Prior knowledge:
The structure holds two protein chains of two kinds.
Chain A: H1 2-14, H2 16-37, H3 41-64, H4 66-73, H5 76-82, H6 87-116, H7 121-148, H8 155-182, H9 188-216
Chain B: H1 2-12, H2 25-57, H3 71-98, H4 101-133, H5 141-162, H6 166-198, H7 213-245, H8 250-254, H9 256-259
Helix pairs in contact in B: 2-7, 3-4, 3-5, 3-6, 3-7, 4-5, 4-6, 4-7, 5-6
Amino acid sequence: MLAVMRRDLLLAMRRKTEVLTALFFFVIVTSLFPLGIGPETALLRKIAPGVLWVGALLSTMLGLQRMFAADHADGTLEQMLLSPTPLGLLVSGKNMAHWLVSGLPLVLLAPLLGVQFDLDAGSLGVLTLGLLLGTPVLSLVGGIGAALTLGVRGGGVLLSLLVLPLYIPTLIFGAGAVQAHSSGLGATGHLSLLAALLVMALFFAPWATTAALRIALE
Amino acid sequence: MSEIVINNRMGMSQGVIHWFKFASPSSFYPLAGKMQPWFWALAAVFGIAGLWISFFVAPTDATQGEGYRIIFVHVPASWLSMFIYMVMATWAGIGLALNARLSGMMAQALAPTGALMAFLSLWTGAFWGKPMWGTWWVWDARLTSELILFFLYLGFIALQAAIDDPRRADKAGAILALVGVVNVPIIYFSVKWWNTLHQGSSVSMTRAPSMAQTMLWGMLLMALAFWMYSVAMALKRVRTIILEREAHTDWVRKLAEVSE
């Protein structure tokens, strides 16, 4: 598992543009909203969590197709299927690499973008913590979609149609945590639900992804 | 080959209906053809009775006037849209577990009807909402989760359409349907809690708890009519899918409607 993760990370580091594209996409999308809506701070503070989360959702989508496509093309995936290590573990490794490449940078960058939206320190903390818990879910659930659309016509657009509805709970709890915090309700409930989603996804998603990969490689 | 195996098995258990026999497309095709007119007839009978009750017998609602009568279409469509997704996922699960071809075909045949029901439910909901609440759309928990259900149907149909190999399409669709079924309750509750936190609108979806008896009857009859229609439609569609996929086999070439 760790070997697969290291290998994927190394490959991603060798092709920095792809990683950076997703990251800058996130930055640009979130900066477009104030331009479209207007610079009133009260309004921006209100929409900030939603905008940042939707931006995170979309920019994780960008990298999803790459999770298995290259390995499928050069036959590595078939070798993984044959290897004595359970495929589920290898898939978890790939998921984790995807998160480290496309999720973690978002988490680190989010406080900076949150400042642009005039969020206070407490909200920033909740936002970052929420993203830290939520973005792995996006990678894990997205992996199922990536495996299902492997080698399929129009896979990219199809992938977003399949995966985005499944992202809705994460979006709701993630953005809701910040809103609950700023309205004085406390974010613990939302964050615990996000953590519950993460645990469920960690357990079940690699399993579904494995099943989908086996079908794709039949 | 599977047909031979099944016929042998049939020989062993004479006198007992061997249900697995109908898991083979060649024996299910004529059965579906025989069942289909019955379901159409039931749909028509229930539909006429339901429409008669809902238009002529059911009283005018005290608060909502005549406009409430759209629930006779709206509620059955919503029920069916959820029910069909469960049935579809069940067939998908059976198909994955037993590796039966027909299950995948059934799931594929049900999806468009389910999507139609979800769309109908959203559309009639909008028509109902406009005169009652003065707005076409509210971000209410039920409306939103119905919309997401519609998206899930579209994803399923799109995935099946995009994969050329029908067996792979069935299995991939099955996994998606099962993942969707796990997610439906999560989505429903997340949307519900999201809505209660945001609660800004004064519109309430709750109806008066006591409904006139005749209204309930009208709704149930319409629900039965929709249900029978869905079964008939799924059977019709599955027959077409069987013909399309089994076009290379001998039994299809020997069919009267094909050789004509």
